[in-house]
Amino acid sequence: MAYTIEPINILLLPESKAWVAQCLEFNVAARGESPEDAQDSLFQVLIAQISLDLFRRRRPFQENRPAPEWYQQAFKSAAHYPMFIPARLPEGFPFRVSEVRIHH
Q: Which of 7, 38, 44, 71 can pair with 67 through a Cys bridge, CB separation 3.0 to 4.6 Å?
């Protein structure tokens, strides 16, 4: 069974000595030492969740809600940031990134 997921938006946030990549469409986040590392970690979390949902024969993220409103508002005022595409992103996975923004 093939599924597609609407394009996602990612908000990058500095957090003490790390960065957080927050997906807005699903309340999923990951950390990394740099904005690129945080994006890569987020992709790995998304891939793992999609794989688990498909294994359980569920639509990916069917039980996940959007990120809280604070992140939605922060995204609106954040600056555009180049998207990082990890080399190990599996071909054919049913999501793509619409936009990445960084909040300082």
A: 71
Domain assignment present for 20 = yes
Domain residues for the domain of 61 are 12-78
Q: Could you give the percent of the chain with pLDDT greater than 90? A: 48
Long-range contacts of the stretch 65-71 (C-beta < 8 A, 24+): 65/26, 65/27, 66/24, 66/25, 66/26, 66/27, 67/11, 67/22, 67/23, 67/24, 67/25, 67/26, 67/27, 67/29, 68/27, 71/11, 71/22, 71/24
In the prediction, which pLDDT does 42 show?
A: 93
Does any domain span residue 38? Answer: yes
Asked if the structure places residue 102 within a domain, the reply is no
